[in-house]
Amino acid sequence: QVQLVESGGGSVQAGGSLTLSCTASGSSANTDCMAWFRQAPGKEREGVAIIDNGDTTWYADSVKGRFTISRDNAKSTLILQMNSLKADDSAVYYCAARRSVFYSCALAVPYNYWGQGTQVTVSS
Q: For residue 36, which of 85, 122, 123, 105 has the smallest C-alpha distance?
């Protein structure tokens, strides 16, 4: 089992920055893959960024060049640095984790551990 707790959400003006953190506790074997998802009102949840335990990353096209995902395994912490925020980035952001499957952390395999979510609101 893995417990995930997000922090760092809030309100910011367009063009500003926010840093989200996620602290993991429990079995580290289930955190090979860690990711950030988001869900805006009336929209489906979408993957934003992924990082594996070798620090290989993936980003959604909508956030490439603006968001950076990183992890500190010694502190069991996942970070999402968000810069140049846009109103479209407003959503509840969720931290997620799972074991890798055939060394892959792709979104095609569901993530099965989730945090409670943290709200990000960007005003234009």
A: 105
Distances in Å between the Cα of 105 and the Cα atoms of 9, 10, 13, 16, 47 are 25, 28, 32, 30, 12
Instruction: Please give the order of strands across the beta sheet that includes 2-7.
Output: 2-7, 18-26, 77-82, 67-72
Whether residue 11 contacts residue 87, with contact meaning beta carbons closer than 8 Å, is answered with no
Q: Which among 31, 61, 26 is positioned nearest to 46, based on CA atoms?
A: 61
Strand partners, 118: 93
Encoding tokens for residue 91? 């959503």
Strands 118-123, 10-13: parallel, antiparallel or unpaired by DSSP?
A: parallel
Residues 102-120: tens digit of each pLDDT: 888 999 999 999 999 999 9
Buried b (16+ CB within 10 A) or exposed e, 38-76: beeeeeeeebbbbbbeeeebbbbeebeeebbbebeeeeb
Task: Give pLDDT tens digits for 74-103.
Answer: 889 999 999 999 999 999 999 999 998 888
